[in-house]
Automatic annotation (TrEMBL):
Annotated InterPro entries: Homeodomain-like_sf, HTH_AraC, LacI/GalR-like_sensor, Peripla_BP_I, XylR_PBP1
Annotated protein name in UniProt: DNA-binding transcriptional regulator
GO molecular function: DNA-binding transcription factor activity; transcription cis-regulatory region binding
Xref: PROSITE patterns: HTH_ARAC_FAMILY_2
Keyword field: DNA-binding, Transcription, Transcription regulation
Domain HTH araC/xylS-type: 288-386
Gene3D superfamilies on file: 3.40.50.2300, Homeodomain-like
SUPFAM superfamilies: Homeodomain-like, Periplasmic binding protein-like I
C-alpha cells in the first residue's frame, strides 16, 4: 500500500493565479500514483493562524505573500514555495525550493505583441509599491528594461489600490493619465483586474479601444473577461505547469531527495489575443468610433442605424467609410463580432445553442445557424465538434 502524505496547500483561491497552481497540483496527483491528503481551508482562503503547529508531511505555499514566507521561515516540514521571479537572486528565499512565474517573459510577450501591432508608445499600468505587490514591481522592472533597451521612454502608472472609499478618485486619475498619454498607445496591465479597470476608464472617458488605447492584461482570467464589454487580451501564465512542477518537487522531497535552493522559472503559456489589443493603424476616425461602439454592443442586437447615430453621421456616409477602409459593410462588422463571440462560447462548451444565440445578439438559433453556414461553411454544432476533435488531437503525445 502506498503511504498517504498529509499536505497543506497555502493559497488564496479567489486569485486566478492561485487557482491555476492548485489545478496543476491536482493534475499531477491525477496523473501519478501519489497519494496526498490535502489540507485547504473550506472557503479556499489563506489563513495562517496555527500553521506553525500543523502536524503534516509537507507544504506548498504562495510566497508572493510576505506573511506566508515569514510564517514558514522556521518550519521543519518539507516545503516548496511558489511565486514570482526576481531580477535579484538574493530576493529568493534561502534554502527553499522555489517555482516561479517568469515575470520578464510575461512582460516581454505582452510588449512584443503590442510592438507587432504597430504601436510605438507603450505604457504600464501597475500597482502601488508594497511588500505584497513585489511581483508587480518586478514586472515594472521588466517593462522598463525592455523600453530602455529599445531607446524608448518608460511610462509607469501605479494608481490607487482597489477600495470602495477611493474608487471615484482612482477612476478620475486613471482617466487623467489616459488623456495624458500620446496616442495611439499600448498599455500592459500587470494583471487582468488592472486591465479591466483601465478598459472601464476608457469607456467612461470615450476613449476608443483598441484604436486609441490597446490594452493587454496578464492572467487570462475568465471572470475579468466576462466583466468587460470589449473582449480583453491577456498573457496566459504557466501557472498550471508551476503547480505540477511544485507537486513533483515536493513528492521527491517526501522520498528523501534534497533540493535546497532549487529554482525553476516557468515561462508563459502564450497570449489569448482578443479585441482589446487588435490595434490597426491609420483608420478613419468615424470608422474607429463606429467599431468601438460595435465591439461593446454587437451582442445586444444593435443595427446599422444605431451605429451611425452614435458616430454622428448619416448611414450612407458611414457605409461608404466602412467600404473604403475595411471592404465590408457595418452590418458585416456587427455579424463578424457576433460570430467571434459565438465561437468563443461554443469553444468553452458552457451554453446550449439557443443560449449562445441569445447571448450573442442573434434573433434566433435558426438565424445563427444560417450565418454559420454562410460565413464558416458549417453549422454551429459541426464547428464545435471540429474544435473538440482538434483539441483532442493536440493532446495526444507525438
Amino acid at each position: 500500500m502506498l503511504r498517504t502524505h498529509r499536505i497543506a496547500l497555502l493559497f488564496n483561491a479567489n486569485k486566478i493565479f492561485d487557482r491555476e497552481v492548485i489545478t496543476g497540483i491536482a493534475g499531477y496527483l491525477a496523473s501519478t500514483r501519489t497519494a496526498w491528503d490535502l489540507f485547504l481551508e473550506e472557503d479556499f482562503r489563506l489563513r495562517l493562524t496555527g500553521i506553525d503547529g500543523w502536524q503534516g508531511d509537507g507544504i506548498i505555499a504562495d510566497f508572493d505573500d510576505p506573511l506566508v514566507a515569514s510564517a514558514l521561515a522556521a518550519t521543519r516540514v518539507p516545503l516548496v514555495a511558489v511565486g514570482g521571479s526576481y531580477e535579484n537572486p538574493a530576493n529568493y528565499p534561502a534554502g527553499v525550493p522555489y517555482v516561479a512565474t517568469d515575470n520578464f517573459k510575461l512582460i516581454k510577450l505582452a510588449y512584443d505583441h503590442l510592438i507587432e501591432a504597430g504601436l510605438r508608445n507603450i505604457a504600464c499600468f501597475s500597482l502601488p509599491e508594497a511588500q505584497e505587490n513585489r511581483w508587480a514591481q518586478e514586472r515594472e522592472k521588466a517593462y522598463c528594461k525592455l523600453l530602455l533597451r529599445d531607446k524608448l521612454q518608460p511610462e509607469v502608472y501605479r494608481g490607487h489600490a482597489t477600495s470602495a472609499q477611493h474608487w471615484s478618485e482612482a477612476v478620475e486619475q486613471q482617466i487623467a493619465w489616459l488623456h495624458s498619454l500620446p496616442k495611439p498607445v499600448g498599455i500592459i496591465a500587470v494583471t487582468d483586474a488592472r486591465a479591466r479597470q483601465l478598459m472601464q476608464a476608457c469607456a467612461l472617458a470615450g476613449i476608443e479601444v483598441p484604436e486609441q488605447v490597446a490594452v493587454i492584461g496578464i492572467d487570462n482570467d475568465p471572470l475579468a473577461r466576462m466583466l468587460t464589454r470589449i473582449p480583453m487580451s491577456s498573457v496566459i501564465q504557466g501557472a498550471q505547469e508551476m503547480g505540477r512542477t511544485a507537486a513533483h518537487l515536493l513528492d521527491q522531497m517526501l522520498h528523501g531527495v534534497r533540493l535546497p535552493d532549487t529554482r525553476i522559472l516557468v515561462p508563459p503559456a502564450g497570449i489569448n489575443v482578443l479585441a482589446s489589443s487588435k490595434h490597426e493603424a491609420g483608420k478613419h476616425p468615424h470608422v474607429m468610433r463606429a467599431r468601438h461602439f460595435i465591439r461593446q454592443y454587437a451582442c445586444q442586437g444593435i443595427k446599422t442605424d444605431q451605429v451611425a447615430e452614435y458616430v454622428g453621421i448619416s448611414r450612407s456616409s458611414l457605409e461608404a467609410h466602412f467600404r473604403a477602409e475595411l471592404g465590408r459593410s457595418v452590418h458585416d462588422e456587427i455579424l463578424r463580432l457576433r460570430l467571434e463571440a459565438a465561437t468563443g462560447f461554443l469553444a468553452r462548451g458552457t451554453c446550449n445553442l439557443a443560449d449562445v444565440a441569445v447571448r450573442c445578439g442573434f434573433t434566433s438559433s435558426q438565424y445563427m445557424h444560417s450565418v454559420f453556414k454562410r460565413e464558416l461553411g458549417c453549422t454551429p454544432r459541426a464547428w464545435q465538434e471540429r474544435q473538440r476533435s482538434a483539441e483532442a488531437a493536440s493532446d495526444v503525445p507525438g
